[in-house]
Design goal:
The protein is built from 12 helices and 19 strands. α1 runs parallel beside α8 and α8 packs antiparallel against α10. It starts with a strand and ends in a 6-residue tail after the last helix. The strands form 3 sheets. Strands 1, 2, 8, 9, 10, 11, 17 and 18 form an 8-stranded mixed sheet that branches. Strands 6-5-13-14-15-12-16-19 form an 8-stranded mixed sheet. It has a 3-stranded antiparallel sheet with strand order 3-7-4. By secondary structure, the chain is an alpha+beta fold. The radius of gyration is 22 Å and the shape is globular. The structure holds adenosine-5-diphosphoribose and P-hydroxybenzoic acid (PHB).
Length: about 400
């Protein structure tokens, strides 16, 4: 039963305790700015939600600066290259040698756990919050209504940060005509499995061939993350475990039977979808991470783009509270939108490079092949790719 209402005030009301919301709140705290975080799921659910696991160097630096880099530095696997397997032929992409930057393999849910652990005991983070609704956003502040622990609560605030993902309420609160959404759905999906098996190789393998795309990634030396491209509309349980292992082995090893197998711990169907909202702000409401943009998983940019937004907004809010300066806040969208389009551009380019559309013509197929040949033969091309893959091009 909902008990009678109360009204609370917070400088920054953050909706969503995914990586965006938790990092924003953490960075604000370190800069002396208070916030309240409203999350509709339980802590357990948020901590266990398996998502991507590739951190760009810039992301790792932000997490270290936020004081949550210790376990990451101890446990994450640092990668300096990956393998392309093109119709069975192996080509290494030595991205660190090409551009000087590395990437770290560390699950998104581990980042979330570290952020939660760092704030343990600190008030202002609420799980299981029901019916979050943005009641108003004006030029001076906002009002959010929700039910916290059964109590109807009105939160008044100076700013609202919508860190509530693609399906959240934040973006919906922007009046029609003030925001445009640009969206593309690619004609394939990824079936992902997390498995208690060591990876086939210590580096990631992006395999492209006649049977379709496959990716070998990992979370630790004992836990692999593997993906298969599948037709859109396929159900997550349509294939048996045996069928999944056989298809992965065919695409990754040419059917040699050398792919290590293990218990499948989790399956997920990931649509390959791109979305950008424009702009990322409306009056005192700011969109952050998946609330503002989503990318197909091909280049693992989603988490990295979310971290970049959260850091940027934290700096802008700190400028406001600590120095009374509003330029960075006013300019949030103007800086963050083009950066998001850079992430989209590279994600789309990897997606179209690695996947054949169902109606791909021979001409398009040859063009894809020609793009690979340039990437593998031109140091300039490979360096530009490496800069985007590791994220240093977007900073
Ligand atoms: N009220 C409160 N919380 C909400 C609501 C709501 N109405 N709607 C969504 N949420 C919560 C979700 O339960 C989730 O915990 O907001 C959070 C959003 O988290 P994410 O979806 O992880 O989004 P974000 O923090 O921006 O992180 C982006 O997640 O999807 C991946 O690839 C993406 O890695 C990227 C990262
Ligand atoms: C992952 O580990 O989940 C992952 C890694 C690299 C990608 C996509 C996903 O390009």
């Amino acid at each position: 039963m909902t008990s009678p209402g109360r009204t609370l005030h917070t400088p920054v009301c953050i909706i969503g305790a995914g990586p965006s919301g938790l990092l924003l709140s953490r960075l604000l705290r370190l800069n002396g700015v208070d916030s309240v975080v409203l999350e509709r799921r339980t802590r357990d659910h948020v901590e266990k939600r398996v998502r991507a696991g590739l951190l760009e160097q810039g992301t790792v630096e932000v997490l270290r600066d936020a004081g949550v880099g210790e376990r990451l530095d101890r446990e994450a696997l640092v990668h300096e290259g990956f393998e392309w397997r093109l119709d069975g032929a192996v080509h290494r992409m030595p991205f660190t040698e090409l551009c000087g930057a590395s990437v770290w393999m560390y699950g998104q849910q581990e980042v979330v756990k570290d952020l939660l652990d760092a704030r343990d005991g600190e008030p202002g983070l609420h799980f299981g919050v029901e019916d979050v609704r943005i009641a108003s956003v004006t030029a001076d502040g906002g009002r959010v209504v929700c039910t916290i622990d059964g109590q109807l609560t009105e939160l008044t605030c100076d700013f609202i940060a919508a860190c509530d993902g693609f399906h959240g309420v934040g973006r919906q609160a922007v009046p029609a005509g003030e925001l445009v959404g640009h969206e593309v759905t690619h004609p394939f999906a990824w079936l992902g499995v997390l498995t208690a098996a060591p990876p086939l190789s210590p580096e990631l393998i992006y395999a492209v061939g006649d049977r379709g795309f496959a990716l070998q990634s990992m979370r630790s030396p004992q836990v692999s993350r593997l993906y298969l491209s599948v037709p859109p509309g396929e159900g997550v349980d349509d294939r048996s475990d045996e069928q999944i292992w056989r298809e992965l082995d065919l695409r990754l090893t040419g059917g040699q039977g050398t792919l290590p197998t293990g218990r499948i711990l989790e399956r997920v169907m990931v649509p390959l979808r791109s979305f950008v909202a424009e702009p990322f702000q409306y009056r005192r409401l700011f969109l952050v991470g998946d609330a503002a943009h989503i990318v197909p998983p091909s280049a693992a940019k989603g988490l990295n783009m979310a971290v970049a937004d959260a850091r940027h907004l934290a700096e802008a809010l700190t400028d406001w509270y600590a120095h009374g300066r509003r330029e960075a806040l006013d300019g949030y969208s103007a800086t963050a939108v083009p950066r998001a389009w850079q992430g989209q551009q590279f994600s789309a380019s990897m997606t179209t490079l690695m996947h054949a559309a169902p109606d791909e013509s021979v001409f398009d197929r040859r063009l894809r092949r020609a793009r690979f040949e340039r990437l593998l033969s031109s140091t300039a091309e490979a360096t530009a790719f490496a800069e985007q893959y590791t994220g240093i091009a977007r900073r």
